[in-house]
Amino acid sequence: MSLLEIEDLLVRFPGRGWRAEAFTAVDGVNLDIRRGETVGLVGESGSGKTTVGRAILGLAPVSGGAIRFDGTEIGGLTRARRRPLAARIQVVFQDPYSSLNPTMSVADILGEPLRAAGIPRARAREHVTALLDQVELPRDAADRYAREFSGGQRQRVAIARALALDPELVICDEAVSALDLSTRDRILALLIDIQERTGVAYLFVSHDIAVVRHISHRVAVMRQGRVLEFGSCAQVTSEPADPFTARLLLSSLVADPDRQRQRRNHRQETQKI
């Protein structure tokens, strides 16, 4: 059985103003994530991919369909009834500058979910040290403020916070899109290493199919609220079934201009056949 199952998910937002029509952001999405697996969810801006993640987290209204976590329906739970899920489902947001309180020390940021879970202060401090080791930050970072760190270091703190309660699933919502290329690669390698050591599953939401290809076991491609194709990473990113996926692949540039030109020419010739 999959850890997370999404069946015919519908997310519709009410219209605003006089005679405004409701807006359907997600329309009939089917998706599943296995334990210890990374599923990449890729699409252009406005495709509905972030809304899927927010629906899983209870931050977007579920208008229809089902979201099952470990066999239990969670799509319609109230905030109070979702609270026990906080230890099992966590999130890493896109912007490491706005997702961390600049006035709090790293020890306070990482200790907050631990204290909320009832872990004694002394034991929480030990756990904070272990979390810093896990995301490869120096232990003295605990006594510094989030505002003192670079973007990549802040994202490591955000990842440590998401891992504080040993979750089974982490929603990574554009978790590396605000970082430079070298920092992005280090964060991706860190996420892969953490998964291999802990068995955590990821839903990795991104607009960049090259990033998704690097980290994912399976990939779902979204457009206009629907999943166009969903399959193994190798199949979707090498022999896509949908023309939109092929265009996404072409839009992901490679460093060598000659190779990029060959890719485009090959795809154009393939489409003519």
Account of the 3D structure:
There is one protein chain. The chain has one domain: Rossmann fold (3-Layer(aba) Sandwich), CATH 3.40.50.300. Helices cover 39% and strands 23% of the residues. The chain has helices spanning 49-56, 79-82, 106-116, 121-134, 151-163, 181-198, 209-215, 233-238, 243-251, 257-272; strands at 4-13, 23-33, 38-42, 64-69, 72-73, 89-92, 169-173, 201-206, 218-223, 226-232. The strands form two sheets. A six-stranded mixed sheet has the order 6-7-8-3-9-10, with helices on both faces.
Strand-helix topology:
Elements: E1 4-13, E2 23-33, E3 38-42, H1 49-56, E4 64-69, E5 72-73, H2 79-82, E6 89-92, H3 106-116, H4 121-134, H5 151-163, E7 169-173, H6 181-198, E8 201-206, H7 209-215, E9 218-223, E10 226-232, H8 233-238, H9 243-251, H10 257-272
Parallel strand pairs: 3-8, 3-9, 6-7, 7-8
Antiparallel strand pairs: 1-2, 1-4, 4-5, 9-10
Helix pairs in contact: 3-4, 5-6
Beta-strand proportion = 15-25%
- The rounded distance between the terminal residues' Cα atoms is 41 Å
DSSP helix fraction: 25-40%
What Rg do the Cα atoms give?
Answer: 20 Å
CATH architecture: 3-Layer(aba) Sandwich
Strand order of the largest sheet: 6-7-8-3-9-10
Question: The CATH topology, please?
Answer: Rossmann fold
Number of strands: 10
- In round numbers, the mean pLDDT is 89
Shape: globular
